[in-house]
Amino acid sequence: MKKLFKVSAAAAMIGLLAFAAAGCGGGDKKAEKKEVVKMGVTNFADSLETTDNYFGWVVMRYGLGECLVKFDKKMNSTPWLADKWEISDDKLTWTFHINDKACFSNGNKLTGEIAAASILRTFEKAPRAKSMFEYESIKGEGQNVIIKTKKPVPTLPGMLGDPLFIIVDTTTIKDRDTAKQGAICTGPYAVKTYSKAKAEMVRNEKYWDGAVPFKEVDILTIDDPNTRAMALQKGEIDFAINIAAGDLQLFKDKNKFNISEIASLRDVLARLNVRPERPLGDLKVRQALLRSLDRVTYNKVLLKDTFVPGGPYLPPSVDYGYAELYKEDPNQYNVESAKKLLEEAGWKDTNGDGFVDKDGKNLELDFVFYSGRAELPLYAEATQADAKKVGIKVNLKNVDYNVLDGIGRRGEYDLLISNVLCLQAGDPEVFMNMYLKTGQEQNGTGYSNPEFDAISDKLGVEFDPAKRRALVIDLQKIIMNDAASLVFGHPQTNMVSSKTVTDAEILPCDYYWLTKEIKPAQ
Predict the structure, then answer these.
(1) CA-CA distances (angstroms) from residue 498 to 221, 330, 504?
(2) Which of 118, 221, 343, 463 has the fewest CB atoms within 10 Å, i.e. is most exposed?
(3) DSSP string, 202-246
(4) Does 305 or 380 have the greater pLDDT score?
């Protein structure tokens, strides 16, 4: 009996030790796996309705929605919900084949008919769609979506990669509050709760394109960049989008953090209201303003070399002649030239108040900006200070992002700054036209140039890449010579993550933030 007791006691002790080891992390590895991840972002969307404003960007950035087409790291259009496509000989009819595996988060199969209905819904609800392309017909046949355009559209696949054309389940759309719940989509995550301040996403258990790593994702809107950096440092979030230039040094320890940083496809530019009744309706005043601004110093000193100085309309990260155009820019920093131009335009300081005037009125410009991106108020304040040196009074107006689009369309500004993606459809055509082509819905600038419009029309039907490049460069030359826009700089962009996650990578097309590739650290 004593021997039996000793053996039993020993066995019990081994069992206890094994249990203790498991409780300390030596056992069930699956239990250790990180199930919830937290992400810190800036967010401009108070709705998940994909056709409203630019809110589709948030739906895609949060891993909810997908398009027929996706952009790779070189901004080529690649298959996504559509696994292949072809164009007819007359270059008017495109056929997109839907991947047979694709389905929505409710399990409904994605068919050509539903995809066609989703695209048609976008055209019905979003005026911006019509500025991208015009169609004769859109229909579904089996797993095919067939789109016939009114004229050849060389970049149609890329346009269908814009988040405006996220594919939604139109068979359930009437049963949902798409602003708060979002439409049923095909992405790796689905909505649990949504507000502009905080969103909770859950794993799409029916995801069609591989494993989804996290059970839940909490997305916190932290618009102040310093607060966002602090939250990442403290471990309150696992990764963050666009840490400010001055804070990046806090995350250089590679044992604790990973910095994914690239030259972006973005412009920080100010639209200029050039309507005849506005001060900037005078070319010489526009030229004077641009020449009064020391954009090289703004980017080198204020933004610590994380921005490339502006001038050309497109950034150096794409092959559209940045270096050559920058050398040719007639409106680089030149204070004396700026003063001379103002004098030639009839603006002089007649009362000694430090500001030039004409007909008893000072030269005043209203500069509209928003604070969601750290660089925007810096550029606005620098503009105010430098313009004052040549006698131009700049009044700063800080507004909420959600009113910015309306202000822009109505032309209720002299300068309106924003940070804009230049290759929204994998090609600059949409961006080149957006604020400057005559008749474009978003052109509230009053700018209209027949030569610009004619070249834009040629670009719209040209399929040859080399010829398209030449036309885009010609458009940039016109913009620069007309001083039609003020490009402050071209930023780098980043995603910074703690070691709790892996593969948190910022991509050139920043529609893709929360992806199935971001996984818990092993």
Answers:
(1) 18, 45, 9
(2) 463
(3) EE-TT-SSS----SEEEEEE--SHHHHHHHHHHTS-SEEE---GG
(4) 380
